[in-house]
Amino acid sequence: MSERMKKQAEKSREAARVVRSRGNEESARRMESYADELESGRVTDVTDTVSGLISWAFRR
After folding, report:
1. What angle, 0 to 180 degrees and rounded to 10, lies between the N-to-C axes of helices 25-40 and 3-21?
2. Please, which domain of life does this record's source organism belong to (predicted)?
3. pLDDT tens-place string over residues 2-55
């Protein structure tokens, strides 16, 4: 798992705490589920690949 994905999972968990404190349990569960998915390793970080392709396309 990349550092970007770890940071995003942390942000998602923090947002879930805030949303839960405001009384929206369902949204909090979805955010925590998203964080779990990021931390599971089943999600692939393709940010560098996409960025490279965009750069390549604009150079042409």
Report:
1. 170
2. Bacteria
3. 888 999 999 999 999 999 999 999 999 999 999 999 999 888 888 889 999 999
pTM above 0.85, yes or no: no
> d(Cα 53, Cα 37) in Å, to the nearest integer?
26
From the CA atom positions of the chain, what is the Rg in Å?
15
C-alpha angle 38/7/15, rounded to 5°?
A: 85
Tokens 């369902």 correspond to 26
C-beta of residue 52 within 8 angstroms of C-beta of residue 60: no
- Determine the pLDDT at residue 36: 94
